[in-house]
Amino acid sequence: MRNINSNLKRKQDENIPRSSKSPVNHIEGDDQDNDEYFNTIEGEDADSSDSDRELEDEDSENDEFSDDEEKSDDETDDSEEDEEDLDDETEDDLDNDTDEEVDDETDDELDDETDDESDDNNEEKLNKDVEAKENNERNSEDIEEGDPELENDISKKRKNINLLRNKKNIREDYTSNTAESGKFVRIAKETQNGKSSKGNEFRIKTKRKDVVSSTENDEYADHDTSDEEDIRNTVGNIPMQWYDEYKHLGYDWDGKPIVKPESGDKIDDFLKRMENPEFWRTVKDPQTGQDVVLGDEDIQLIKRIQAQKIPDVSFDEYAPWIEWFTSEVMKTPVRKFPEHKRSFLPSKSEQRKISKLVHALKMGWIKTKAEQDALRAKAEPQFYMLWTTDDQSEEMRRIHKHIAPPKRQLPGHAESYNPPPEYLFDEKELKQWNKQKNDPSKRKLHFVPQKFESLRKVPAYSRYIKERFLRCLDLYLCPRAIKMKLTIEPEALVPKLPSPRDLQPFPTVLCIEYEGHKDMVRTISPDPTGQYLASGSDDNTVKIWEVNTGRCLKTIQTNDIVRCVQWCPNTALSLVAVASGNRLLLLNPHVGDFLICSKTDTVLKEASEIISIDAMEIPERVRSSVKWEEPSDEEYNNGIRVCLKHFKEITQVTWHCKGDYFATVMPDGQNRSVLISQLSKRRSQLPFSKSKGLIQSVLFHPLRPLLFVATQRHVRIYDLVKQQLVKKLMTNSRWISTMAVHPAGDNLLVATYDRKILWFDLDLSTKPYQTLRLHGTAVRGVAYHKRYPLFASGSDDRSLIVSHGMVYNDLLKNPLIVPLKRFQDHKPHNDFGVFDVKFHPLQPWVFSSGGDATIKLYSN
Amino acid sequence: MAITLSEIQTQIRFITKQQEYAVANVPFTVPSNIDCKSLNKLINSLLKESNPDILKNIEFDFLVIGELLRVPLCNHLQEKGVSTEVTVDIEYIQRSPAPQPQDALQHDDWISSVHVADKWVLTGCYDNTINIWSTKGKHQVTVRDHINLVKAVTWLQEGNPLGGFVSVSHDLTGILWHWTPDSPVPVMKAVLRGHERGIDTVGVSPDSTTLATGGWDTNLKLWSAELDDDEPPQKKSRGNILTKVPLQTLKGHKESISKVIWIDNTTMCTASMDHTIKLWDAELCGLKNEVIGQKAYLGASWSHLAHALIACSADRHIRLYDPRSTDGAVCKSTFTSHTMWVSSVAWSQNDEHLFISGGYDNCVKLWDTRSPKAPLYDLTGHQGKVLCVDWSNPQHLVSGGSDNSVHIFRNMHVGL
Fold first, then answer.
1. ipTM summary value
2. What's the pTM?
3. Which residues face A806 on adjacent strands?
4. What digits encode the pLDDT tens for the residues A293-312?
5. Residue of A238, A609, A812, B71 with fewest CB within 10 Å of its CB?
6. CB of A551 within 8 Å of any CB in chain B?
7. DSSP A484
8. Domain final position from A270, A290, A306
9. Where are the WD repeats (chain B) (predicted)?
10. Which domain covers residue A198, as residue numbers?
11. Going by C-beta distance under 8 Å and a sequence separation of 6 or more, which residues neighbour residue A532?
């Protein structure tokens, strides 16, 4: 009968969904069937209890030892049961949960059901007990024999236990995770029951362990360490450093803190390392704080992971490839017959369904998601930001880049209904306020602060409407515009200049004064070797000085004021060109190389003898402006070798770099102001036929055949070969005094009487690259150093300023100009300060000549 | 800071090498800001206690850690980086008294060079003359054979005027002279011809056999100094006067050579305007070593006692070099007290620490190498730039300058 019922049952089960196979659902279905179902199980249970009883009888027949054994067994059983109970409890809890879902319908049967549950558990337990005892007997026998195999066995089993435990844990997790559906849990439980053999196994193992623990000797013989102890941390998977500050690591199953094992000091560590051969494979379990010796398998695993291999040894990376789905395209179809027409024709029924939906959409019976959302949004209350207009620019049509009106000032203490007494007007202030009635915009406050006892006593503000109106007028009538404001710090505009200390060497101290002249020294010129210095003065003399000692070696008397001396740059000649009045004297100072001096004399003598014959070829214009003369005997003895008599006063003479040509300037000569003379041929020429202005200064380009001509306001550069104007430099100043050209020829310094020094970069533009306003009065002398990146300027304010002027070979880099040092040692004389400035040709020294009849040398 | 400088005490111990002034070797505790004067008092009182024979106060100088004490002791120690808490050894030496001005020899023009041998002062003058004076101030001889200013004169044998002398001039020649004190006029023995520009300096080797000259043609030329007529006459001119040509010409300087000195018989040292001091080997005629400075050198002097070179350049400083050291700072110390260029320097011949210097600030200064901060004495008297100094005769410090006078100071140094 039962069997038939159960069969019936099964048939019914097949019809209903699988998940409802659980007994709970059966209870729902019909009671009777259910009862019978459980009865069958009960019957089985009774059988098993019988066998259990038989076993117990057998046990009682055994000797004392087995009794003891039994006792311990019982104890362990209890603990086991506890454990099991725990498991069951959790499961029961879950069951209950699920039950409660069901409870709503079946309140009455709840009790019965739970009873059944417990019965079920009991049955299970009994089954386990039976098997366990059988195993136990076997164990006890083994232990009596003391078989060494057993020990191995035990350790193996222990591992198994652990494994099992883990498995169990996993299972628990699983069940708890799937706690939503009681049905599922039930299935899991059933499977557990089904695997009762496995459960037994578990039990056996734990028993084994207990056995071992009772035999202590064995344990220690096995090198068993405390890591086998069941220290299980309940803290879960948390960062263990949370426990760093505590003495314990967590809590065991009983809720007792797991105390951290004592960590030895460094010496212990070291000793361990030295003595323990397995130290290298010992790691600390962060969960328990115990040292764990890794097994070979673990080591292998780690090694494989480190080697970036697949951790599983058994995995064959190079297994033969099995083509489950062939990549080859079959030529013939797999099946014999072609695809049915149905498979590619649209389904009629589906078409019908779709047309229905389309119709419903068209008619508005059903709505799309977007439409639904829109409807819902409409139904909800609408909010808007109250304060948007104040600080955000409104999106206005036709107004682009709307500028928000300026904010009104927030009320201060004076606006308060109860202002602090200092804000209240005293009589004077009130009087003042009243006085400004006619011009209210001048008032500091547009109202009189008033004090009230409380806010409620404050009357209505009488000017409210008016003020609003005024504000509106302000906003409406006052156009607003975005003002671009550029904030540049004045410091940012100043270029970063290097420190003068980094620009050494440059002249820093006055070291030698050359005293001997009796009047203003207008001009100086050092000889190309730097041994001597020539100077010309208003006392009509030219003096030759020894640079290093300040000794005046020679004094040459002339007939007129010496306005310019210039040492010939040709080192093969010992000549100084002296502009004295309207005569240009070529002077052999007879200092330095004796041979050169005498050779110069002979060369000049020969030249005069040869060339003086064809003087007739000279054009009239030149002849009228200059006359080459032989000096008188007295003058010859003084060293004067050649004399050029000009028709006007000469202010300047300058040599071409080769030392054969020299140019003289006569500012009053109008279109004959500049005269270029050639020493070797004793010939002069007037390069310009038209006067461009009052010529101040001329200079030869150091490398190319160019002539710089400075008039009052401009500097013109002429090509002497092509005889044309190359460039005209705009000085933007009123009166040029003198100029100097950089030894490389690409930069020009122009000094002006209106206090400026202009640096022209000839490659850059015709306008000054830099205008230096370093002096307070007219600048009379400028000079470049031949070797060092230095230039100097002297002015009527008695000051000599030495500056760093670095010219780079790189065309992209502009010259660097840094004023370095200012000297003011010359004494004033008739408002004249420094007349001429010249650098030593080799050393970083500078000479300056002044109105006080002295020449000064500044050295580094 | 409750403790002021005066309250800090320092332990000092006096030591000396002059045994007649030795005091007990016990440490004293003195205020750490004690200066030279107080130390002098202390030493003198100690001496009087131990030796009642000493009646007069004796001036001492105090050497602390290799340098003469010029500032309060604590400052001195601070500069040297020594703690004031350890016992400081202070060596005291009798202070040499100031050199006394003895005579001023008036010339007609600037003095370019001066050299003393025995009691004869040889001067070269800007008026092309060479003069010989006795140290007593008696003018002996004037030679006017040069046709341009005489730049350097030197006796051929150190301390022996009978060996003759040599003069070089801006007339591109050098002349070897023979002179005996009783002869009225020195005899021109040989003319050195070969320089292309003015000769500024001449140096005689210690064994008096070789001359080295340098000047504005940047070449260093070596000449034989033999006065004997035994050697084959190379070239005769102007009667029987021998004309010598240089044995060797050493090129290397880029600018004029301002000073040539001999370190030993085979080594020369040249100071040049091209910012270098070069050491030359006279036998191999090659460059041995080079000191590159920052300024143009104007003068140099070598001490056989201290084995060091002092050089003055176109600035206010005198620098002490060890030309043999190749590593590290070649400049050992710097002496700064002159206010203008220092034109010449000269070592003492019998004291390894002393030298004199003359500068364009009209001042001759006597220095101790152990006191780089301040000179021992300023020898004033010159009215113009000092162009040359000489201390060949230990008893006389001689200097000449642009005031046309040669000043002779008598050395009052202890032990002379």
1. 0.86
2. 0.61
3. A816
4. 888 888 888 989 999 888 88
5. A812
6. yes
7. P
8. A306
9. 192-224, 250-281, 335-377, 379-409
10. 2-224
11. A526, A544, A545, A546, A547, A553, A589, A591, A592
